[in-house]
Design goal:
There is one protein chain. Helices cover 70% and strands 0% of the residues. The protein is mainly alpha-helical. Helix 1 crosses helix 3. Keywords: Membrane, Transmembrane, Transmembrane helix.
């Protein structure tokens, strides 16, 4: 039986990218600042499927958490994200007041 290689689904990274980040995280925190920044970028920007694929590999979830613990600022919500959340909360509250008066 021959199993053919399937390309990565649209919107996901290649296995090579995930393998690269796995290699960096295996050595974390004994990595260069550039490698740590590369792993940080991947965890902050990669599609959720890729992050899930990485975290499902043995030992990677703990290393990902360690990186997030050491570099919390990179994973904090942006100002835009906070403003969108506030706008959504205000919209829900305003809707509640408007429907309560009907």
């Amino acid at each position: 039986m021959i199993i053919e290689h399937q390309p990565a689904p649209p919107g996901t990274s290649t296995n090579t990218a995930i393998d690269r980040i796995e290699a960096i995280l295996k050595r974390y925190p004994e990595v260069s600042p550039e490698e740590a920044a590369e792993a940080e970028r991947f965890l902050a920007e990669a599609p959720i499927l890729d992050r899930g694929l990485l975290s499902s590999r043995p030992g990677m979830q703990a290393k990902m958490e360690l990186l997030r613990k050491h570099r919390p600022k990179a994973f904090a919500p942006s100002m835009l994200g906070r403003m969108i959340l506030l706008a959504m909360i205000l919209l829900v509250v305003a809707t509640g007041f408007l429907t309560a008066n009907l």
